[in-house]
Write a structure and sequence with these properties.
Layout: H1 2-26, E1 31-33, E2 35-37, E3 39-48, E4 53-57, E5 60-63, E6 69-73, E7 81-82, E8 87-91, H2 94-136, H3 142-181, E9 184-186, E10 191-196, E11 203-204, E12 217-220, E13 225-232, E14 244-249, E15 256-264, E16 277-284, E17 298-315, E18 324-329, E19 334-339, E20 341-345, E21 349-354, E22 361-363, E23 377-379, H4 382-385
Helix pairs in contact: 2-3
């Protein structure tokens, strides 16, 4: 009898061990989670662009001659730094230059003729004055006096006509100078030559109406840059000029550049299949940014609307829809779901008003496969998840 009981006891123990081993083997692996220890810090209320912004030079001139012609001078090359007023390009203009020389000589001749005519008029006026004095003394006849007066008026009219003719010649010089200026491109500001479309002896033509063509010279002022970025119409209501902002550029990774809002668009941009946005311009005020920037870089902006200091905060990526988070219990190797109340928020951190305490560990990859309330979990680093 005793042997029979012992045999059943051994069999039951074996079955129990097999069942435990089977359960253990079939148990799902713990979910790999990354965690963040909750602490106090600063939380900013920010708005960000909905699509990539663009670094833009404060001044940029895409220039072409206003008339067609053959390129005679091209003293610049791409990448050159030029000063305001420096010659960038000149078309063949010897005919206009000769016309200007002729007009200037004609103008000089007209001025000389006017001076001579006016000297004659002055002399005639003095003679008329003398004749009037002699007539008063009854030394000359009235006819002689009248002749002197008429001659003086005639000479004065000739002087006026000569002066007007001289002014016409001067205006002609101005017209030819304007025509000559059309054959030259001068730098409107200090800058860098970004692009040149044309070579010596090539023929360039101005753009026909409604048909844009490539500019002959593209000049960029590299002393000032701003970022033009689209902000959702819902968020832009809180944005005002001079608000601080941070700018990040794909070309510089996670590095931030200080900026401030310099302009807010006057209308809403409605693009097909895109959210309605307002273009906001953020000026880069970080001195270290200028020499490193290139017009056309893609950029993102975070405009700071408000700042809260020394508040309990968690990474925004840890929050699920409805204000839920997962807490990690390192001792139990398990996660639990917790409902929280939030305050100020941005893409990086969110203020916690209720539901958590400093030192709690919150899961920062709450979308991990298999993660649920009460699930087994193990802590890993971000590098291990990759």
């Amino acid at each position: 009898m005793g042997k029979h009981i012992l045999r059943w006891s051994v069999m039951i123990a074996v079955v129990a061990v097999v069942a435990v081993l089977a359960w253990w083997a079939g148990r799902p692996d713990p979910v790999a989670v990354t965690v963040h220890t909750i602490a106090r810090g600063t939380v900013e209320t920010t708005v960000s662009n909905t699509r990539a912004g663009t670094v833009t030079a404060c001044r940029r001139a895409k220039m072409s001659p206003s008339i067609g012609g053959q390129i005679a001078q091209l003293p610049i090359k791409e990448g050159d730094r030029v000063e305001q007023g420096q010659l960038l390009l000149e078309l063949w203009n010897r005919d206009v230059a000769a016309e200007l020389e002729l007009a200037m000589r004609e103008c000089a001749a007209a001025r000389a003729t006017a001076r001579a005519s006016c000297l004659t008029a002055d002399e005639a006026q003095r003679d008329a004055t003398r004749q009037q004095t002699l007539y008063t003394r009854q030394l000359v006849s009235e006819e002689t006096r009248d002749q002197a007066r008429t001659l003086a008026r005639s000479r004065a009219a000739e002087c006026e006509a000569s002066n007007m003719s001289s002014q016409v010649r001067e205006a002609r010089v101005t017209v030819v100078q304007a025509t000559l200026a059309k054959t030259r491109l001068l730098a409107p500001f200090d800058g860098v030559v970004a692009d040149i479309n044309g070579e010596l002896n090539e023929y360039v033509t101005p753009s026909p109406p409604g048909i844009p063509t490539l500019p002959a010279v593209d000049l960029i002022d590299t002393s000032c840059f701003y970022v033009a970025a689209p902000i959702d119409e819902v968020d832009v209501s809180g944005v005002t000029v001079d608000l601080p902002a941070r700018v990040t550029l794909d070309a510089f990774g996670k590095e931030h550049f200080a900026g401030k809002v310099r302009r807010i668009g006057d209308y809403v941009v409605d693009l097909e299949k895109q959210a309605r946005t307002v273009d906001v311009e953020v000026e880069l005020v970080d001195p270290a940014a200028g020499p490193r920037l290139l017009a056309g870089y893609s950029a993102d902006v975070d405009i700071v609307l408000a700042v809260k200091q020394d508040v309990l905060r968690i990474p925004s990526e840890a929050i699920l829809e409805g204000g839920r988070v997962y807490l990690f219990d390192a001792k139990a190797g398990r996660v639990s779901e917790r409902q929280i109340k939030t305050g100020a928020s941005n893409w990086q951190f969110t203020e916690v008003l209720d539901g958590l305490a400093a030192g709690d560990q919150v899961v920062t990859n709450p979308d991990a496969d298999g993660l649920s309330d009460g699930a087994d979990a193990r802590q890993v680093t971000e590098a291990e998840l990759l």
